[in-house]
Amino acid sequence: MANTWWELQILCDRALEESVLWRLEDFSSRGTASESKGNSCLVKAYLPRFQAQLLDLAALSLWLRQDALCVGLPVPTLNWELIDEEDWATSWKQYWKPEKIGDRFLINPAWLPLPETTERLVIRLDPGVAFGTGNHATTQLCLESLEMRLSDVPSSFVGQSVKKEPLVIADIGCGSGILSIGALLLGAEKVYAVDTDPLAVQSTFSNRALNDIKPERLVSAEGSVDMILKLAGQPVDGIVCNILADVIIQLVPEMTAIAKPNTWAIFSGILLEQSKAVADALEQNGWIVATLWKRKEWCCLNVRRS
Ligand SMILES: C[S@@+](CC[C@H](N)C(=O)[O-])C[C@H]1O[C@@H](n2cnc3c(N)ncnc32)[C@H](O)[C@@H]1O
Q1: ipTM more than 0.95?
Q2: pTM to 2 decimal places
């Protein structure tokens, strides 16, 4: 069967929802949805068939069991089945509704009509198989940090009465391109967006078109920090990077090459207990950790060079 996907269904105690979602993300699932079932929660996750063998699913089941036992909660049940691509797209999309994030953003699924009136900046999204629907705490922390960082940049939609230096941003691990689009709507001049997953780059291109963004304002390519330097040819003003802590720690030394003396950065995808390790790596590489924002068990570090 070509283009088949695993649909995983996990029924767990509501208190376990976040840790189940985290396990699924770590397991590289390409889309998740959860719904309440009384005191329980039904989490569905989807991933391409080639990406997991039955043995991997059995291992996932063991991890879920361990996580529950560690906190003294009932062990979740995990069921799985193969579905075709069309069913995957439909099953997942029906759960996704427009969502307000922070003070400025509204995320609108591409297949739903736009609101008739809103004062919010609307990001239209169809992430396809890429990460970045806006409903994950790590993405939300980044969008809210961008709001804070770019609050004094005149938005391209509100006129340009105040003359400011054009702001160039790097989005490392762009997924659906949600953060790049958010930064542009907040007034950034240009974003370079990279991801090691070619499907994420495709998704960023389609979402760029969906949001009527000119190709020269959002440049995307497969790769990581080194690709930013190739694309931009010089350091950037701001960096946003929502990847897991271990990857961030590895990438931090390379980021010096894309930073100016006054570059700021937003690092997310960090579990609270990993924040010290990430902050230490950043400080050892010349960054000043200014603030830590937390949501659920995740946190986001807002840092600067000077
Ligand atoms: C958690 S998702 C973030 C997506 C989106 N930026 C958001 O905030 O919702 C992390 C993304 O980083 C990508 N990624 C993982 N390791 C990477 C690396 N070393 N360099 C660049 N991208 C990476 C993954 O493919 C994935 O699309």
Answers
A1: yes
A2: 0.77
